[in-house]
Fold:
Amino acid sequence: MGDWMTVTDPESKNISQYTSETKMSPSSLYLQKVLCSSIPLSKNVHSFFSAFCTEENIEQSISYLDQELTTFGFPSLYEESKGKETKRELNIVAVLNCMNELLIRQRKNLLAQENVETQNLKLGSDMDHLQSCYAKLKEQLETSRREMIGLQERDRQLQCKNRNLHQLLKNEKDEVQKLQNIIASRATQYNHDMKRKEREYNKLKERLHQLVMNKKDKRIAMEVLNYVGRADGKRGSWRTDKSEARNEDEMYKILLNDYEYRQKQILMENAELKKVLQQMKKEMISLLSPQKQKPIEKADDSTGTGISDVEEDPGELSRESIWDLSCETVREQLTNSIRKQWRILKSHVEKLDNQVSKVHLEGFNDEDVISRQDHEEETEKLELEIQQCKEMIKTQQQLLQQQLATTCDDDTTSLLQDCYLLEEKERLKEEWSLFKEQKKNFEKERRSFTEAAIRLGLERKAFEEERASWLKQQFLNMTTFDHQNSENVRLFSAFSGSSDRDNLTVHSRPRQKPYRVSNGSPICTSKLTKSLPASPSTSDFCQTRSCVSEHSSISVLNMTPEETRPNQVGGECANQKWSVASRPASQDGCCSECSWTSTNSHVEKDGLP
Amino acid sequence: MYKRGLVQVWSLEQPEWHCRIDEGSAGLVASCWSPDGRHILNTTEFHLRITVWSLCTKSVSYIKYPKACQQGISFSRDGRYLALAERRDCKDYVSIFVCSDWQLLRHFDTDTQDLAGIEWAPNGCVLAVWDTCLEYKVLLYSLDGRQLAAYCAYEWSLGVKSVAWSPSSQFLAVGSYDGKVRILNHVTWKMLTEFAHPAAISDPRVVVYKEAEKSPRGALGRPACPSFRAAESKYEIAAVPVSLQTLKPAADRANPKIGVGLLAFSPDSYFLATRNDNVPNAVWVWDMQKLRLFVVLEQLGPVRSFQWDPQRPRLAICSGGSKVYLWSPAGCVSVQVPGEGDFQVLSLCWHVTGASLALLSKDHFCLCFLETEDEADGAIGQLGAHT
Structure:
């Protein structure tokens, strides 16, 4: 009816814009005026609302409104009219109701508008989202299409390759077949040729053979010095049928022996294997029988057969001996029984597996659950035990290593080691002291030996010098011969009696005083003295010193002019004189080569008392 | 003396005894003793016939149509029987003779294209017959001529190169051109296992001995040797993995150097020694109890021959140099042959008692005496040189 349009210039009185063409424009003025008086709004709105109803067109605006409202289904604004032409009174109640209703409707519409707007927004965002998704999916689709095309391309290529390879394989196979055929044909050809050539060759050989045989060459001969006996010592025998038969017999004998031997071996092997199988069977039965005594939830046929098997056992045991035979039936029996047992064992193991898996899956039976718990507990306990054991092993290992290692922190072990060390130290000390003692002794001995050696050397020197001087004397006194004999005797007696002389003569000493002699070799003299008492006889001395006397005869002669003393020994002064004689010859500084006998006497005096 | 067709025989115990056999125009291609030592079998030229000369009776027997092949004659170990390969009318036959009186026992044909060799089993009851190298076929015949089994490993390739029986007759080792040895067992005559000879060894349980030159230094305590004696060598243990020297054979020539060319079982059947011609410097020793590779010995030069001690598991190897090598499960040692000049050991031969070893060069031979085990391990005592 009436389209409310927005007014750009609400202040303008141009009402025609917002009223319907069907209606009169002035009515709209009236409408506006009516409305503006009741609704307290802003001036613009006021003016807007006052544009419909003004003071002048109230009736028109009321009738217009009434018409509009009745068309919308509202009750009439007018009161019930009694007559047709009387002016209808405005029903204020109806008007208020209508207004309320309109307000309510307005609110509703606003709500609905809001909802619609929010929905619109939502839909808009959804639309955006969907559009973006759509775009993405389109992209994905594109890419996947491209991929697919690529893969298809590759697939095609691979199939191509595959076909090519198949083709190649076929070709190769064909080639192989062809080559094989060629080879076969060539082989037959070759064989044929070979046969031909062989026949030719054989013919030639035959001819050659004939020629060779015909030649009867005397040169084809054997020269032997003498016949060699046969290896087995027997004589050769002629070839006869009997010998042929004998050979055949021997051959068969050999073959039979070989077969028998092999059969024996095989029988032994068989017996061993049978034993093993029987043992296996027994063990399997023993394994299975204790299982049967446990209560098993699922009753199986296998249990029945198992029990029956256990019952079979005593019967079977008695039949064992029969199995040593190897006839067909017995063999089959053994294998069958083994197979049966094996099947039972297998089924039992499978059953156990099933039980375990069922417990894992369902756990419906309390017993099973508890048993599983127990099982777990036990496993935990066992694991703990294992841990403990491992730790113990580790500690043991450590202790062992400590014991073996040289450095250790433990007190007792260090003490022990110290003890051992002390013991060893003491032992070492003892040995060391021993060693030192021995060293000292050795040193002493060495020193003594060196001294002895030195003395010996000196004495030897002295002796040499004396000898030299004595020889000189002898040589010098070569001329005086008359006293030779007596002097010799004297010399001898002097030698022999030197010890006596030494014992007796003390007064000879002052004569010898000026002859200061050095104890060149006291040991030698002491040796001499030692030897002298042993054999003081002149004869011995004569013999021992005969050689000396020959050399020293000269010096003896020298001594004669000097005083001689009558002695029981006789030659004492001769000795002295000899010493005197010898001394001037050796005036030089060789005190060591001074008289032997004088030193003798000197020492004697010292040593004897 | 093949060229002159003469065979001369001397006695070791009676030096004045001698014998001369003259084949004359028949020519001589091969000659061998019979196991009783009283007969000499001469193969005439072109393999026309085999003449059996008896030293006991001065009699002659002839055997016609012998086959000219790699190993056509085989005496059984106990010396009773002789198996001879024959070929008549392009077919192969095997004749079995009794050695005591040279009577023909059995004569049967074989299912081979071109028989290449025959060999008795040590127990004297089975005869192994193998075909030419163009076809892999091993046939087994019993003493009375029945065929027991046939074995073929593969077709279309070069086949059997060498065959060896184990001394217990339990195993038959077949070495082929593909570088593998196949072991057949005597009960079923089927393959037990096959041994391959790759050039790279990676199994850590295998011990690899490599011969290495010692730095040239005078040996202490040895009598002075001339200066041109070759350098000493010793064995070193090489750590696995090891790769051996290989030889690429000429593919267009006959008798290519590939495949297992030498096979020998130890006397107790515990070990099998092989040589793969691709890897000419190495000797492979296989443990027959565990059926796997045990030891590899790599020499400096190509291995010419090896032979087991007839009494114990001791292997002697020669490689053309002047040394002989000995291996036993206890270890291995390389021994220099003393002598003036260079003594090239080309082949060797053990004495039956295993106490001495003959080393042969081109025109000399040397006897090597081995001390008993009372002495230090593997001690090789005096070496005497005789020519």
Remarks:
- DSSP finds 17 helices and one strand in chain A.
- The longest strand of chain A covers residues 221-224.
- Residues 92-215 of chain A form the longest helix (124 residues).
